[in-house]
Design goal:
heterodimer, A: about 210 residues, mainly alpha, Rna Polymerase Sigma Factor, Chain: A, Arc Repressor Mutant, subunit A, 2 domains, 11 helices, B: about 170 residues, elongated
Chain lengths: ~210, ~170
Amino acid sequence: MRVIYNVEAMARSDVQLMLDVKAGDERSFELLLRKYRIPLVNFLYRMVRDSAVAEDLAQEVFLRVYRARKDYAPSAKFTTWMFRIATNLALNSVRDNRHRQVEISMDQTVDVGDDERPVLEVPDHTPTVEQYLVARSRSEMILRAIHDLPEKQRAAVLLHKYQELDYDEIARILECSESALKSLLFRAYETLRTQLAPLLNSEKVSSITL
Amino acid sequence: MSNTERFAKNCAGMENKLVEYLDGRAEAAERHLVEEHLAVCAVCRNRAEDFRALFGALEDLPMIMPSSAFDASLRARISVEPMRGGFWSSLPSPRLAFAVAALIAVSVWMASMPRIVDSDTTMTRVPAEADFSMIRDLPVLENYEVISKFDALSELPASPEDAAAGEMTNERAE
């Protein structure tokens, strides 16, 4: 069934699907959902580094797309519009979370000792997939390095490297010029180059031995 | 020194060209410039090699799958969305409401302005011939001949001057 959905979604452009949704075709919305839920959840997970929050934000993105269906006008690519919503939601979530963490740390009375992370009684939303990622130190190292980037650089890298969007699309999403985006990406990759130097050395060694 | 030569010695110019070059999206002219610079600059050449290795390493990040409850949860959220055909959605958008309000305000203002009646224009708009033909065609005046020869009417003076002269004659007779 999923294969049929994907083939149908590939056959019609995103804009056409969205125009069909606008005309009241609920099934086209289902096709868009199936086509983009995995890229969207992964993008948001890498932005906020919390799978439960990422899923919640991804649903919010789809909900906003659905709400806006009657006013939809194909002035830009569908992915530009969708990832713009996703990026704004992710950036707001990251900022809210940072603000909340500052508030918690100011109220914190527990002695955290040598551990950098405070010991708090919080609900455990960690899914199996995240535990799996943590277990893989290489992936964890990459994820941590990406997450440590400034927010805009992080979004730029994720949209460039993992969503493979065009420069003009990413520039629109991040509301900057293409030239500024290229500089932003250069600085982000330069930081990652430093942070992931041990990985890169082994990568280069393995490519030489091959 | 030509622009190409200048760029070949300028590492700063690589900042917004290197990534595009490495992911194969640079145009031929840009690609040529970057390659010329990399040929003479060991620092940028080393950076380009690291970036290539970095792009390869970043591929290792595994994908996560949405939970099995994702679709059902989204559908539940959509189902509680207010219907489009409801009362609130029937209200005009703020822009349209403003436009209508402005139109009404202008209409009221125009209506409250004092009217200037241009008598000349009125006269030309309704010529005497048209008035006459309209009156002539009215059914009530079909018996114009009868009315004009009505006895009571024949006693009436032809004009106010005649009436005044008639009154003076009567006074003298008395």
